[in-house]
Amino acid sequence: MAKDKKVEQITDMDVDFTQWYTDVCTKAELIDYSSIKGMFIYRPYGYAIWENIQHILDAEFKKLGHENVYLPMLIPESLLQKEKDHVEGFAPECAWVTYGGSDKLEERCCIRPTSETLFCEHYKNIIHSWRDLPKLYNQWCSVLRWEKTSRPFLRHREFLWQEGHTMHATEEEARAETQRMLNVYANFMENTLAMPVIRGRKTDKEKFNGAEETYTVECMMHDHKALQGGTSHYFGDGFARAFDITFTGKDNQLHHPFQTSWGVSTRMIGGIIMTHGDNSGLVLPPKIAPIQVMVVPVAQHKEGVQEAALKLLETLRSAGIRADIDLSDQTMGWKAAQYEMKGVPIRLELGPRDIENGVCVAAKRTGDKVTVPLENVADTVSSILDDVQSELYAKALKNLQENTFDAHSVEEVRDGCAKGGFARMMWCGDEECEVKMKEQAGVTSRCIPFEQHHIGDICPVCGKPAKHMVIWGIAY
Amino acid sequence: MAKDKKVEQITDMDVDFTQWYTDVCTKAELIDYSSIKGMFIYRPYGYAIWENIQHILDAEFKKLGHENVYLPMLIPESLLQKEKDHVEGFAPECAWVTYGGSDKLEERCCIRPTSETLFCEHYKNIIHSWRDLPKLYNQWCSVLRWEKTSRPFLRHREFLWQEGHTMHATEEEARAETQRMLNVYANFMENTLAMPVIRGRKTDKEKFNGAEETYTVECMMHDHKALQGGTSHYFGDGFARAFDITFTGKDNQLHHPFQTSWGVSTRMIGGIIMTHGDNSGLVLPPKIAPIQVMVVPVAQHKEGVQEAALKLLETLRSAGIRADIDLSDQTMGWKAAQYEMKGVPIRLELGPRDIENGVCVAAKRTGDKVTVPLENVADTVSSILDDVQSELYAKALKNLQENTFDAHSVEEVRDGCAKGGFARMMWCGDEECEVKMKEQAGVTSRCIPFEQHHIGDICPVCGKPAKHMVIWGIAY
User: Are B126 and A79 in contact (CB < 8 Å)?
Assistant: First the structure.
């Protein structure tokens, strides 16, 4: 009864995917709305997912030699304007501070939409010699982009992210860093978030404002739309020239350093929801779940049940499993629905008969109930968590593979992507044809994937010789 | 030679304490200036100290049941205005956002100077029943206060902090939370930062805008001035009434919840510098030092030295000691000066003769060199780190005790505090006398300490019966 009541509150994803998504975000208590349009509240459960993401990625960054810093949130307008392409891209969506207290500022400042300009200003002060390179910096912060439309996690006016900014003595080293960090993102998304990705390069039209190259990891959601999971940019020495950053090389000559930046944001949480969620709510990959196992005692008023459940909890926790217990007076049905909604990978039930038999029952969020002996319970539960993680990845990979198709004409892309999916099609490399794909097929280029297949020799848009195979799709 | 050259760069603290402080902040590479006055760059070494602070406090908060959240950085003006005392205190130092892109905002927003109003707005949405209480939330973020003057760590326009915001069903519980969190801060500062504190209550004049009571931990710096290390506020149900937050109690009646907030900031790093630093630079308590031990090989070109040094490094790291190694081609003198400047607690030297003798030499940042056998080196080094931690606390405590004096007249306070120190003096409780102390003795009330002594029966300012013993001083 309680379960039915709870599940009814979520819109079925086949009926209205957008509403289903919003329902999961709010009903699983990940996020709340604030009084400013497009600015959201990260609630404890949503923020805990972000903390797990931070924890894992931060350790990875540090292992590779990156150091964390924190730069100001405000950018004077003249500083933002120093790199021409960059300001053109970002100025239209900046929020501007014009008053400090009751004094009008001499120069208005924007709240950082991204921090390349601030890092460049700082790098100019601290980079002088080849001995000062490389600089491998990262920053965890929020950024602000005054978007017209908004959706929880996917498009916020203010969102949390990390932005890496590095400076190198040589182009080769900077290019290698750009690739290295893209791979960090790709591996993290596949291994930890159980989200298969396509690694590739953005077309010039889709690349970051001011970048020479932008690399991306693209994921497919349940509805077969694309989500850009993370990006890594190679800047060459463009910003360094604009900001007059130089260093004395081993050759005793002045050089401009080569630059990269790379970032992922809380958008990934939207990706997790839309990759793994179902009509009962959120489904979290165990490696990122704030609660991996929820212990739910059955008939907990009976003698010995609560004690045994607490002992079980302690055993799991001692083994490093993120476990919790629900001893509330809610019904079993309510609890089952609640932890399904919250995407907890395993609900572990333990009642009087189970105790007698020396077992407990693991209800996997991905389906199935398994009877688990209390002897070595932590090992068994760990291995079930691994199974859930693998199942989720396999299911998501199947979705990606089954809904990616080769296309040989604009119409094929249009019709295929309208039904949902990614199209692989050859492209001549001209922006004109890319614009036509948007107009005629309603898709954008997601990336030029590193893994190229031979699909044909010509660009179906213009008939000229093809240069690359491109992934086309409809994106969030 | 190299060492002398380096040390010369710092102003002697007896010559100019302010300049000494700034020198340490910049030369130890903790902080850098940005192009906006009062907005600073937290450099990797300074940020790493903050990360250690975060790591320890965050675990402490969570152990006590607090959950992290993230709320928007912008506050609509009408929301800020809901609590009268609060807005009066903060509005004059708010930075205002008036444009989003090219559109003028219908209502301007300030960048959060603190988030009570935002938390109240959210709490109104999520608190309905006694089952929803307590709410124990914390947020790690930056806040912005458009101050006229600024100093690294001590007074920034933008600074990093944590702000806890809690809601409780009863006054008793909220008051207990206020005290509990003050004690978390006090214990952290004493045990981890080696900074002895005075715990007490602020006078009405000095309390937080909108609070019923503000509790504080006050520390004494090298120059005998006071630094407020952290505060914890009890709000009663004032904000809850202003924001119309209610819950249905177990009695089935509507009630307003009772509220607290509490915070510490990167200001504490300024406190660490001014409590422990010396004329060679920064001195870091081992428990918070990003690098606890720097291994410096002597004659590292000689056979076996580098290998032995790297092995030593590995041994220390395996034991959980934050150790690093300097294999650069800089001179021993430069390295010694460099790690003194950076406040590394132990410099561990290892040369060919040491290896022969099965020892290394530990140069403590607090003075003394100790020969340490390589057998069980990690245990010995850990114990030396503990010694350094204790020495620093003892020295700081001595400074506090020797420079705190009882006073029986305004003149005594004036003359004593001008020389540097804290005065204990009785007070009638009237704000008028507090104002006179500022005018006539140049001091402010730091707190009404929990540990009260009987110094006299009257308030020396007005001659009326005294209510409390107050700590007076000159504050940062």
Answer: no
CA A60 from chain centre, in angstroms, equals: 16
Rg (CA), chain A: 25
Helix B431-441 to helix B410-419 angle (10° resolution) is: 50
Among the partner residues A39, A72, A92, nearest to B72 by beta-carbon distance = A39
Residues of B in contact with A55 (CB under 8 A): none
Confidence of residue B219 (pLDDT cuts 50, 70, 90): very high
Nearest to A217 by CA among A234, A233, A207, A232: A232
Which residues in A lie closer than 8 A to residue B50 (C-beta atoms)? 70
Cβ contact B102–A93 (<8 Å):
no
Q: Which CATH number fits domain B404-473: 3.40.50.300, 3.30.110.30, 3.40.50.2000, 3.10.50.40?
A: 3.30.110.30
Subunit contact B74:A158, Cβ cutoff 8 A: yes
In the CATH hierarchy, which top-level class contains the domain B13-276? alpha beta
Closest chain A residue to B42, measured at CA? A70
| Gap between the Cα atoms of B233 and B202, Å rounded | 10
Q: List the domain boundaries for chain B.
A: 13-276, 293-387, 404-473
Q: How far is B95 from chain A (nearest CA, A)?
A: 4
Chain-chain contact of B70 with A142 (C-beta, under 8 angstroms): yes
Contact between B259 and B204 under an 8 Å Cβ cutoff? The reply is: no
Q: What mean pLDDT is reported for chain A? A: 96
CATH superfamily of domain region B293-387? Anticodon-binding domain (3.40.50.800)
Note the pLDDT of residue B84. 84
Q: What is the pLDDT of residue A347?
A: 98
Predicted confidence at residue A7, as pLDDT, reads: 44
- B293-387: same fold as B13-276? no
The CATH architecture annotation of domain A15-276 reads 2-Layer Sandwich (3.30)
Question: What would the two tokens of residue A9 be?
Answer: 């509150």
> What is the per-residue pLDDT across A61-109, written as a single tens digit (0 to 9) for each?
999 999 999 999 999 999 999 988 888 888 889 999 999 999 999 999 9
Residue B146 is nearest to which of A100, A111, A144, comparing CB atoms? A100
Residues whose CB falls within 8 Å of the CB of residue A208, separated by 6 or more in sequence, listed in order = A89, A202, A214, A231, A233, A261
Q: Mapping DSSP to helix (H, G, I), strand (E, B) and coil, where does residue A464 land?
A: coil
Decide: B60 and B192 in contact? Cβ < 8 Å.
no
Among B42, B54, B97, pick the best mutation site for testing chain A contact (most A Cβ within 10 A).
B97
Question: What number of C-beta contacts closer than 8 Å exist between A and B?
Answer: 142
Q: In what order do the strands lie in the sheet with B67-68?
A: B67-68, B135-144, B158-168, B258-265, B226-236, B213-220, B198-201, B444-449, B468-473, B422-427, B404-406
Distance from CA of B72 to the nearest CA of A (A): 6
Tell me the ipTM for this assembly: 0.96
Does residue B44 have a cis bond before it (omega within 30 degrees)? no
Residue B392, judged by CB atoms within 10 A of its CB (0-12, 13-18, 19+), counts as buried
The pLDDT tens digits for B228-275 are 999 999 999 999 999 999 999 999 999 999 999 999 999 999 999 999
Of A51, A73, A157, the CB nearest to B158: A73
CB neighbourhood size of B327 (10 A): 13
Tokens describing residue B67: 């959950």
Within 8 A of B32 by CB-CB distance, chain A residues are 122, 125-126
- Give me the residues paired with residue B260 across strands: B166, B234
- pLDDT higher than threshold 60 for residue B7: no
